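Illustration 12: Microcystinase C.
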Amino acid sequence: MSGAGPRIALLGFSIECNRFAPTAARADFRVWLEGEAILADARSRAPGALGEMPGFVRAMDKAGAWQPRPVLLTMAEPNGPVEHPLFAEMMAIWRQGLEALRGQVDGIYCVLHGAGLTTELDDPEGALQALVREVLGQGVPLVCSYDLHANVSDGMVRDCDAFVGYRTNPHLDMRERGAESAGLLRRLMAGERFHRAFRRLPIVAPTVSQLTSEGPYAEVINLGQAQANALGPKKIANVSVMGGFAYGDTPFNGFAIIVTGPDKPACEALADELAKAAWERRARFVAKLTSLRESVERALTSEVPLCFADVADNPGGGGRGNTMYILEAFHKAGVQDAIFGIIHDPALAAEAHALGGGAKFTARFNRDAAKGFSKPFTAEARVEALSDGKVTGRRGIFANTAIELGPTAALRIGGIVVVVVSRRTQCADPAFLEHLGLDIGAAKVVVVKSRGHFRGGFDEFFSAQRIVEVDVPGLTSPVLDRFEWKKLPRPVLPLDPETRWTPR
Ligand SMILES: [Zn+2]
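Figure caption equivalent — predicted structure in token form:
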């Protein structure tokens, strides 16, 4: 190491890919940072990147001198598989950047999601990690962090020195995991060596069964943390319990446990204990949804305000953010005092902007996007509010993150105010609605297109008891037997009740 501290390569690739959704192109990558831009973003007040890189950079800055060697960081809202030529373009940039650093770095930090796909690859993260090893060799410590929805391949575990997964869902610990990665990389650079124990179970847990405030997933995560604390950092450096992302539909889908640490027998034993604990809870990894008919009834008659989640059209899982099932049913039933957030419809938002505030017109949803689950819907509307869609998240997964919703409009349709945006985004932050002057606390009914991250943003208004997960069709429906799986390992729970697994 030179006198100015360790030289650390920084790179990353983050997208969650739904095999059943349309492909992701360059315009879908809202974060594309090369070189110094990664650092400028990470050190800014409201970074565009999610929290891992800012958390890592700030922890490194705080711990003393270091020499960042930033390469390329790309991030996109969940979508379909990435168009392969685009991924190849990224790989070329990473390769060139890493080759320029050969023999000149002391450590590497790589921000990954873990549930990426390309139109040709099931495991782009594994490909990127293999590239890092190929160019920089086995001797330079590599720490990788992942979303807990990662579908963990053997290559992902092999080609790193420390595997760090989120522990919260909704994801509220991205900065902490970035900072933790910095600490682990410092230990590795100081000469420690870590083993990684890996177990994968034949359980593809529906997304709605993977909350970490309570329930089976929380119990396994908490057990892992308790045991890691009891054993101490000299034995266990990190415990990652990965719920996975069913809609990736890869041969390596499955509930995964990765225990990283200096003490191999302790890591292996803890991985076994956690795998057994997860398997014992297998019957509880199921979705419990409310039918649309019952949801309408509750929206009309509830004495207390309720939040209805369209978990099947979650842009945060590749949903298009524009299905009409709930809006149409609530409108037809005459639901009052409702806010509906948020619908992705650039043509409608543009029309509302052209007409101006107060205008009355016939809103035609999905005029350009009628495809699959996204059906047209028409209703008489009034333009209540308009914005440029530039929002800084205030709570939950997008807190302190700069988000661009694009031209945005609030449209009144009967008793419902619908927020229409031009960039497909999960409704996870109250600011997406509030910046238009909407009062969430005064609404009797709030509908969000989100699977679970809204819980971290809207918890100020709705306790878990006041949340209704609605069962409608969609690309992210937690009812897994509605999909035509091609690559999932079978048998697997909950699809195949006869699935067996025995501890080692
Ligand atoms: Zn996730």
